[in-house]
């Protein structure tokens, strides 16, 4: 069996090349590598940048992962409105656990914040569809 560090480094290079070419799945996977410190030092801010690229291209996993970073304040300022917006978008995209994520987050929010998240979610469209 190959050394896991070698395998992560190899995967990182592949994902980085594909992500730079605009492949949303590779962008999300690269974000996950940064978030989890797999083959690279753990870096939530860099993870959020790659998740943002994937989400902007309509990648449901990127939307969810970015929402979790916002909702939990991991590496970026905690932002319940942004997290809720992203979970609402994921729900519209068909993510099966989106409602559970919303059920955990919305009790921490004011009615005004929930309304703002709903309005922002309705305005959102992936970059490819704009």
Write structural notes for this entry.
This is Sel1 domain protein repeat-containing protein. InterPro entries: Sel1-like, Sel1_AlgK, TPR-like_helical_dom_sf. With 130 residues, this protein is an all-alpha fold. The chain has one domain (4-125): Tetratricopeptide repeat domain (Serine Threonine Protein Phosphatase 5, Tetratricopeptide repeat, Alpha Horseshoe). It contains seven helices and no strands. The protein is elongated, with a radius of gyration of 15 Å.
Q: Total strand count, please? A: 0
In percent, how much strand structure appears in the residues? under 5%
CATH topology name: Serine Threonine Protein Phosphatase 5, Tetratricopeptide repeat
The CATH architecture can be named as Alpha Horseshoe
**Spans with pLDDT under 50 lasting ≥5 residues?**
none
Report the major sheet.
none
Number of domains: 1
Summing up helix and strand content along with how strands pair, one would put the structural category as mainly alpha
Percent helix, as a range, is over 70%
Q: How do the SSEs run, as a string of H and E?
A: HHHHHHH
Total helical segments: 7
Average pLDDT value? Answer: 93
């Amino acid at each position: 069996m190959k050394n896991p560090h070698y395998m992560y480094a190899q995967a990182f290079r592949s994902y980085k090349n594909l992500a730079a070419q605009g492949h949303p799945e590779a962008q999300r996977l690269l974000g996950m590598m940064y978030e989890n410190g797999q083959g690279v030092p753990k870096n939530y801010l860099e993870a959020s940048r790659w998740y943002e690229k994937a989400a902007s291209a309509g990648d449901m996993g990127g939307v969810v992962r970015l929402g979790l970073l916002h909702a939990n304040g991991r590496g970026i300022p905690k932002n319940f409105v942004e997290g809720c917006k992203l979970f609402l978008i994921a729900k519209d995209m068909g993510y099966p656990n989106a409602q559970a994520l919303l059920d955990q987050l919305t009790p921490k929010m004011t009615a005004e914040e929930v309304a703002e998240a709903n309005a922002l979610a309705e305005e959102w469209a992936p970059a490819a569809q704009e």
